[in-house]
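Issue: copy button drops trailing tokens. Both records pasted manually instead:
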Amino acid sequence: MLLSILLSILNILQIGETQNPEKSKSVEIAPGNTIEMVYVPAGSFTMGNTGEEDQWTVDATAHQVTLTEGFWMAKYEITQKIWEKIMGSNPSQNIGDNLPVENVSWNDVMDFIGKIQGHNPNLDLPTEAQWEYACKAGTDKAYSRDRDLMTWHKQNSGVQTHPVGTKEPNLWGLHDIHGNVGEWVADWVAPFDDQPETNPTGPENGEYKVIKGGQHTGRPRHTYSYDRQRTTPDRRLFYVGFRIIMKE
């Protein structure tokens, strides 16, 4: 019991040391529609599998990446309430205002992005590098905190989505970034090599788009920060949604 209390206090202190309350804010993404966003500072990190966990993930060779500009990232996955307000309909299979939107293709998401960019042109999908950097939250680990504090996956979700923010955030204040639904990012899939990169955006074209973050129907290993899933940009999956960023 005492050990459990001490661990809880340590987690609270750890969040306090790494998350500046002044670096989160409400952002209007369409008239009358706001979301909470968290600031992610510029920096360098090791992208890919550093060998902390098993090596099953393909095309995730560890390499140094530098992001020269900070950005704001949505604190939560985009909810069905927000999607329906912007798009006028709800394609999700598990219905609930505060559940993450799912069953949306990458193409659908880009239609959403196009609409909100009409209000704020700095809004976009994150690149894979931006997403993984934010997920790792100043670490080079599979998880910045204890996995089950942060993550809905097949073994604890009841094989259904959950309202956003009901698990604890990662060290930079981002909720559900390791689970609940997988998240589309901007990049086409390409294998990594060990060469350093600055502000990578992936190849200019390809067959598959990258999905990050694991999901409520997936095995825990899919929730690794460096995990890479893929499918075609026109495919809708009941376990895939997204979150957005805002450039500085």
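Record 2 (pasted manually too):
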Amino acid sequence: MLEPFLPHRPVVAVHPKMPEALHEANGVAAYLREKGIAAPTGSLYDETLRKRLKQGEFDLLIALGGDGTILRAGHLCGPANVPILGINLGRLGFLIQVEHKDCRAMLDQMLRGDSWMESRMMLRVEHMRAGESRSVLHALNEAAVSRGQYLRPVRLSVNVDGRLLTTYVADGLIASTPTGSTAYALAAGGPILPPELRNILLVPIAAHLSVNRAVVLSEGSSINILIQGENTILSVDGQEPVGLEQDDHVDVRASEYAAKFVRFGDPGYFYRNLTAHMHQNSI
């Protein structure tokens, strides 16, 4: 039986580059006030809001926007162990169950205790250079090691649990969560994994005379990607890319954090949402 979720201290947040979202967020906050629940509003990039969330002041983040907004919310809320309720103002919304037109009805449903919590795996991605850690990031969708601005394939030697898996000559390699299997990994020809799984998916991008099949690894796998050449970048969930150098390593494993989402109805919502979007052109 799915355990219901009843929030008491929500915050409503938006992406600052979606001006229309702030207006909608104020409407959501006003509706919650009518229900006797105070909910401040703000930007996902606001340092004061982020600090308050990390300190445990809120027990729910209501995020209005598209999938990019939800990814940003996941990066913030995963380490803070704060659930997310996404309300779709974007085009696709693979990560979002609630459409804007239905948000008041779904808020009422949540406040009646008719919702449940879904936990989604994240990845820990560490950039190593000369034996020193340069950065550690946590991904909800994927980490992509790929070619930079030049139209030349990159050479990547990949070890799994200390043993050589293969050397890719390709435009890049994606290490994806099941959540990310409907994102960049899907566009690169990877399989769709149910979100409740805890596997790591490796998908090469435009492999050149090398292994061109996706590989599904267990949650406990440790992946080491050795960069063998120049003109290579690392991008985590589509964020600003990081330049990589010859002999850099990108280490990927399951994160100690998970992104939690408020969901409605039965877990089959994922397949209904997927079917609705699979033949939809977002342009």
